[in-house]
């Protein structure tokens, strides 16, 4: 049932309504009324894979758009009535709006972080309902490759204003896989439909086949990929609680389509993420249940693929078993397809050995030592519909090595298909190596360790790629934490994955062969070779748990997840102990919280006053920085272990920084932040450019121009003294020719 702002009379009373009218008429007129096209349009956007920010980034504006999905679950939703957000962003309110007439450059996500205070309630954003045009007031804010409108809640909340009610939300723009891609690379011109409602339909040229279904209660539960069978795909992102399968879901018993399902169509909001492997990763966010089409075909089911041998010797055959079932028709055949050393693909039939669901087949023995054998299973029903496991054999297969020697860490870690999985996943293996990181995750001697920080014990066998692995203490009584760097150990455990990070669990044997051994030399790699690669990227995955070294690096951001200083718990300045470093080839994250060393980024409020610790400085340089590579929460990151991993940490003077030639346009978070009354704004420009640095208040009004001049390539710092300004939130904008960035800072007097 629609909720109208006029109904507030019965809730707040006439006085409240008059105040709201006063807010709307008296305050919102201070901000320019712009169109969604004004916010989004970027000329020649196809030439910028990095996606430049909105030309109005940092500005406070009024904008009108039709709501494509209501903000909170209505009381009319059966079995819910708790008013949880529909577009899930924790406790925040969020939604998508669109130009009612033209979808090109016509969409944006609206976001309100504060939802509990008195001010927050006065925005009335929770009453926004589908197919209604409202006027919103907020700050244009870049978000990944997208743009959001942050609603103003302080100092004066401005309620959304109902403009008109439409019969229904705008029809989706019909697009195809061919529209989204050029070959298998992303087509940047589709950015014009960012944050708008689209529909992809299955036809003779476009299959819509589901895969990579995520179940369980994790944050990504309900997500799945939609493929066309030609190597192109987009992610169906379960951001709407109608499609979540975890505790946040509002449809009891909802299940996302099983892998291999052919859909008739999918509708939703088109969003994008940068993906180095394909240029851009497209996501579609279905909003309501009717946005997901009915299954056209349900394929056979193939699960529980296992082999009888963990380690395979020359000339040993391997028996493979699986559970296979027909869904819409009985099975016609079940086969194993295999190849040796990436050679010609061969196949063997599998036979039902227990009832009509357990199938087994045998891969013949291979005589060559160190041969690499990969395989997949394919079931076909009487309708001719097939299903493989893994789903896409072109980029994911089961595999093993044929060895006339004991298995090593390299074989266990090796993952060539970009799915991150070991060929020995879920099998028990025995490997040996030297401990390269002992209680690096604990920092107990310092007393400042994060309560949830991992206790990562790493062993490594030799040097180079794929040579390290994490020993996890889960489900074992062995004294893993008693190991010290330099110990040479032999370990038996089960190969598992933790946040796409390979480890040994259930350790049943732990033998220390010798102590005080020389550690493997770290391998020198560049920051740009890892950068922001997505999980399981082979280029980064090969260094997982391996000692690596970055040389001649500088710190480009002292807090990769928010403002400098401790996490206040407000969600506006999160600090997880991660900084950003760069050797001139690109940014990469570095995790300071999980090491026994003296360097920190003020993630704990007590660290700054402790003379035994050093707070890292934006722009500081190091001759080298060593650690092991870790992955969590969407990023690969370096984890230094001890103070000696930081070689020649140096705070660079402003004059010295101006002589550096950076490789990228970078705007760092001001430091300190919050500040009183002065703070430093630092940035890097790779080429000579006309640079402007300006400061704005939350009303979008310019309060200071710090620079308006031509600068040569270099690293710069500007001291900003805000003694004449009042406490509050401000934004600073750095523009250098076609590059620009906006960041938030807080003045607290």
Describe the structure.
It is a single chain. Mean pLDDT is 84; it is low at 1-29 and 441-453. The strands form 11 sheets. This protein has a 7-stranded mixed beta sheet with strand order 8-11-16-17-14-13-12. The protein has 6 domains: 5-165, Nucleic acid-binding proteins (OB fold (Dihydrolipoamide Acetyltransferase, E2P)); 173-297, OB fold (Dihydrolipoamide Acetyltransferase, E2P) (Beta Barrel), CATH 2.40.50; 301-402, Sandwich (Immunoglobulin-like), CATH 2.60.40; 409-519, OB fold (Dihydrolipoamide Acetyltransferase, E2P); 524-655, Beta Barrel (OB fold (Dihydrolipoamide Acetyltransferase, E2P)), CATH 2.40.50; 662-747, Immunoglobulin-like, CATH 2.60.40.1930. The longest helix is centred in the N-terminal third of the chain and has 18 residues, at 9-26. The protein is built from 7 helices and 48 strands. With 749 residues, the chain is mainly β.
Rg over CA atoms, rounded to whole Å, is 28 Å
So what's the CATH class of the largest domain?
Answer: Mainly Beta
Overall domain count: 6
Biggest sheet, spatial arrangement of strands: 8-11-16-17-14-13-12
CATH topology of the largest domain: OB fold (Dihydrolipoamide Acetyltransferase, E2P)
Q: Roughly what percent helix?
A: under 10%
Q: Assign an overall shape.
A: globular
* Alpha carbon gap, first and last residue: 47 Å
What CATH architecture of the largest domain do you see?
A: Beta Barrel
Strand content: 35-45%
Structural class: mainly beta
Topology of this protein?
Blueprint: H1 9-26, E1 33-34, H2 36-40, E2 60-67, E3 93-98, E4 107-112, H3 118-121, E5 132-143, E6 146-151, E7 161-165, E8 173-175, H4 177-180, E9 181-182, E10 185-186, E11 197-201, E12 209-211, E13 224-227, E14 233-236, E15 262-263, E16 265-275, E17 279-285, E18 295-297, E19 301-307, E20 318-325, E21 331-340, E22 346-349, E23 351-354, E24 358-363, E25 371-381, E26 386-389, E27 398-402, H5 409-413, E28 428-437, E29 457-460, E30 468-471, E31 488-498, E32 501-514, E33 523-524, H6 538-541, E34 547-557, E35 578-582, E36 587-591, E37 599-600, E38 614-615, E39 621-632, E40 635-639, E41 646-647, H7 654-657, E42 666-667, E43 678-685, E44 689-697, E45 702-711, E46 714-721, E47 728-736, E48 739-747
Parallel strand pairs: 1-2, 4-6, 8-11, 14-17, 30-32, 33-34, 36-40, 37-38
Antiparallel strand pairs: 2-3, 2-5, 3-4, 5-6, 5-7, 9-10, 11-16, 12-13, 13-14, 15-18, 16-17, 19-20, 20-24, 21-22, 21-25, 23-24, 25-26, 25-27, 28-29, 28-31, 29-30, 31-32, 34-35, 34-39, 35-36, 39-40, 39-41, 42-43, 43-46, 44-45, 44-47, 47-48
């Amino acid at each position: 049932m629609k909720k109208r702002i006029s109904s507030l009379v019965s809730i707040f009373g006439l006085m409240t309504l008059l105040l709201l009218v006063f807010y709307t008429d008296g305050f919102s007129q201070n901000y320019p009324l712009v169109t969604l096209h004004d916010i989004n349009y970027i000329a020649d956007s196809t030439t910028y894979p990095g996606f430049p920010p909105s030309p109005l980034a940092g500005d406070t504006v009024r904008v009108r758009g039709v709501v494509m999905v209501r903000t909170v679950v209505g009381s009319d939703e059966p079995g819910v009535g708790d008013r949880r957000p529909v577009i899930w962003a924790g406790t925040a309110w969020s939604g998508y709006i669109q130009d009612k007439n033209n979808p090109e450059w016509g969409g944006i996500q609206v976001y309100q972080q504060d939802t509990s205070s008195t001010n927050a309630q006065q925005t009335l954003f929770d009453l926004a309902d589908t197919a209604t045009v409202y006027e919103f007031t907020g700050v244009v804010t870049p978000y990944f490759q997208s743009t959001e409108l942050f609603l103003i809640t302080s100092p004066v909340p401005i309620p959304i204003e109902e403009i008109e009610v439409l019969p229904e939300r705008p029809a989706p723009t019909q697009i195809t896989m061919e529209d989204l891609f050029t070959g298998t690379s992303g087509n940047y011109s589709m950015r014009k439909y960012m944050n708008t409602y689209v529909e992809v339909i299955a036809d003779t040229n476009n299959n819509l086949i589901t895969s990579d279904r995520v179940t369980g209660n994790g944050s990504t539960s309900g997500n799945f990929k939609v493929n066309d069978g030609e190597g192109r795909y987009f992610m169906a992102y379960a951001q709407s609680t109608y499609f979540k399968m975890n505790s946040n879901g509002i449809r009891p018993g909802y299940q996302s389509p099983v892998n291999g399902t052919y859909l008739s169509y999918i509708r939703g909001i088109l969003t994008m993420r940068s993906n180095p492997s394909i240029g851009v990763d497209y996501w579609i966010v279905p909003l309501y249940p009717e946005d997901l089409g009915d299954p056209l075909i349900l394929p056979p089911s193939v699960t529980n693929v296992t082999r009888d041998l963990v380690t395979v010797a020359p000339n040993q055959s391997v028996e493979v078993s699986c559970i296979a079932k027909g869904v819409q028709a009985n099975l016609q055949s079940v086969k194993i397809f295999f190849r040796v050393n990436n050679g010609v693909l061969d196949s063997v039939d599998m036979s039902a050995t227990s009832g009509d669901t357990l199938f087994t087949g045998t891969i013949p023995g291979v005589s060559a030592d160190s041969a690499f054998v990969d395989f997949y299973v394919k079931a076909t029903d009487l309708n001719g519909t097939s299903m493989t496991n893994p789903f896409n054999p072109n980029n994911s297969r089961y595999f093993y090595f044929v060895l006339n020697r004991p298995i090593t860490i390299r074989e266990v870690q090796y993952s060539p298909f970009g799915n991150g999985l070991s060929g020995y996943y879920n099998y028990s293996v025995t490997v040996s190596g030297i401990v390269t990181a002992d209680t690096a995750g604990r920092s107990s001697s310092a007393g400042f360790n994060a309560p949830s920080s991992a206790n990562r014990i790493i062993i490594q066998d030799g040097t180079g790629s794929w040579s390290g692995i994490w020993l996890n203490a889960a489900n074992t009584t062995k004294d893993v934490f008693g190991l010290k760097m330099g110990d040479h150990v032999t370990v038996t455990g089960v190969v598992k994955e933790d946040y796409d990070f390979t480890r040994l669990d259930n350790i049943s044997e732990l033998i220390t062969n010798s102590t005080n051994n020389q550690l493997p030399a770290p391998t020198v790699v560049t920051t740009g070779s890892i950068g922001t690669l997505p999980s399981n990227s082979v280029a980064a995955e090969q260094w997982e748990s391996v000692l690596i070294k970055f040389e001649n690096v500088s710190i480009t951001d002292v807090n990769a997840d928010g403002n400098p200083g401790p996490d206040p718990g407000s969600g506006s300045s999160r600090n997880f102990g991660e900084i950003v470093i760069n050797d001139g080839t690109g940014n990469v994250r570095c995790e300071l919280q999980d090491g026994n060393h003296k360097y920190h980024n003020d993630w704990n409020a007590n660290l700054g006053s402790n003379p035994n610790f050093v707070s890292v400085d934006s722009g500081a340089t190091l001759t080298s920085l060593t650690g092991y590579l870790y992955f969590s929460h969407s990023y690969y990151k370096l984890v230094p272990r001890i103070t000696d991993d930081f070689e020649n940490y140096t705070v660079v003077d402003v004059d010295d920084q101006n002589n550096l030639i950076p490789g990228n346009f970078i705007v760092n978070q001001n430091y300190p932040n919050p500040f009183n009354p002065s703070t430093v704004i630092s940035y890097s420009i790779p080429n000579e450019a006309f640079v402007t640095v300006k400061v704005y208040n939350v009303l979008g009004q310019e309060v200071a121009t710090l620079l308006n001049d031509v600068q040569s390539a270099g690293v710069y710092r500007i001291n900003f003294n805000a003694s004449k300004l009042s406490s509050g939130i401000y934004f600073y904008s750095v523009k250098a020719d076609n590059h620009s960035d906006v960041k938030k800072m807080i003045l607290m007097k």
